[in-house]
């Protein structure tokens, strides 16, 4: 066998050409194997890129990066211990084994908690961000107000004061704990059960009531149905009904922050049901590929209207999916506000590329202590402290998404349009009500000596009064005028002038265009108002024309 | 900024414009190059503008519209995306909410149906739902309508669907001048714009003046262009069918029938004024489109003409449209399913 002759040529030829040549020379199988073994010892395999070097395609760490020259080299590599493909380096196995599924499930991701169901500290819990008394009381106050507000607005809807409401009962800790862990200017893309986040950020009871009644004071001009809040001033995107569409939005916004080098994250909340939507998959995958500083907070409350979680998915919930996308993920006890808070603070740091600084002491970002604007200064990755290589690697990986799955239970009905006793038992609901996160935290506060029954009663009483007063005030305010109905379909023309040499829209009056009223809309508005003036009986009495 | 560059609808291609004495020298440019140069200039002008879509970067664009842009502006401004229309559209919309100005490419508008919720429920409606607080300055673009031999799922025309949605602006360029001026207008516009191109037109070259080549050449949105004046019949159309109408008009002119050909350029807002002025002159109007007849663009034109110009009409408004079938593949069937120049001529003669 002319091994040496072929061997001399191997440097000039690809593997397939080599094999053709061998076949042509009627080489035996052992000849071929010998040649390959010889070749593999001398052909340099693709070298893994060093950890931490910036990757052009942004692949997750653990894969080799494939630049074009490396892909070509990979295609020619004859190394036998791993497979080099455009997606990365894959080790071989001789075992035929299926991983995952009902036969060989991957281990269930455990649930991080620091306070047990009775309100006691979990011994040995890792708490990088202990709660000061001030913070703890602010959190509890918000949770209690949220709970009372929800109950009263729900009742108000039952009384016919507005058309729709939904509560976040059972998820107060998820709402408040996560809100407290964010900066005030982190943009929130909520689903619809996160009114606690708005409450934390300072949205007033009057604002809630105005939105629910759709009156003229409502910043949304009565455009949206109840609970579809939005407030740019509180960095809270207007709620959009189709499920999970907010998830790619959050990734896009996070990407914008990254491109602008802003020290902000985008946060998206979504339920266990919404995570089944295609948009969820696209958002997860994309956020990882783009390295977008986006927090994914899943409220796994066990139900999607009547569909229980075990009919929604067959894998390990939502947290179990994250690592498969290349996203650092954690599962948290959503009823433990301190656990949620700690997870979100850490996740936020990680998303910004600041690394996991959990064990180090001083250099923590405390978003809730931030200034009024909430803008944070980017600090370098956590100095000192434990964790060493893992954390350094995490810091070097740059910004990227993080997934937090908060496990809780939807104590209330899906909404005022639902009667959940039709699909779940009262026993189940009663059992979970007993594990009410607000009560649990109250116990813990009591054990610290920071709260008592007197203050509790007073807080509840005053909140009830405030909510009633806000509803009454909101009911007195007239509805938005009919003339507002046609504005904001398009942006006002002043905005385009700012763009410079902008896209002028033909014709139309200056004043109309200043309101975004294109000619056909200005005509329709005029015709509508004219009709309403001529037929005042048609227009509801509390809707002014203007 | 440069108001003299904004053309009025009635100027012909070679009319000298105002104060600036541009040389009358004219060059040719394909629609592809027109779009490419417009994107290039807008990327250079505003660093918030970026392009994303499948194959837009390394591959230079599935139809080469984005050729050279990745090399020039880098992967932060020209992003290749994973295959998820719903995903990358949603991400583009989210980035627009945060102040970037994405140009979101669909390989064809057919695939945008997988993202239509993001286009309509998120991009189009958010300004209204947020009462003017959240803008979405995004351009969605890609080839629309029939190509050649790509059959049912690659040949649908979406002009009618998108033009019915309040909050969207819908543009359809025909020639290189349209492509440059409307693309720049779309990118600079604060509202979401649906930009319907045409694959067959990409390779076609059209004359362009130095004015059109100016980097601030912007056409007004909502203004149609009279491509050819005439007094007997008005032909109104958009995109590739404008070319067919012009050819039909040439042939009919030999027989003494003078057609006025209007290029809509903007499906939403629709330039009713130009249509009405034309109908007042010709008293007969025919709408020509590739898309399906029921609830097509021609239906809207018919309704508007009936409502606003009933007394001017000497004949019913005619619609020349594609056949009401999913596009067949076989070349002869495809030709039969689309309006041809002869169909337009026949329609004109039936009422002229």
UniProtKB/TrEMBL annotation, chain A:
Keyword Oxidoreductase: yes
Annotated Dehydrogenase E1 component domain residues: 142-351, 395-481
GO molecular function, one term: oxidoreductase activity, acting on the aldehyde or oxo group of donors, disulfide as acceptor
BP term (GO), one: branched-chain amino acid catabolic process
Keyword Endoplasmic reticulum: no
Pfam families membership: E1_dh
InterPro entries linked to this entry: Alpha-ketoacid_DH_E1_comp, DH_E1, THDP-binding
Protein name according to UniProt: Dehydrogenase E1 component domain-containing protein
Lineage: Eukaryota, Viridiplantae, Chlorophyta, core chlorophytes, Chlorophyceae
TrEMBL record, chain B:
Keyword set includes DNA repair: no
Coiled-coil ranges (or none): none
Keywords: Metal-binding, Mitochondrion, Oxidoreductase, Potassium, Pyruvate, Thiamine pyrophosphate, Transit peptide
Example GO molecular function: metal ion binding
GO biological process, one term: pyruvate decarboxylation to acetyl-CoA
NCBIfam families reported for this sequence: PRK09212.1, PRK11892.1
Listed name of the protein: Pyruvate dehydrogenase E1 component subunit beta
Organism for this UniProt entry: Chlamydomonas schloesseri
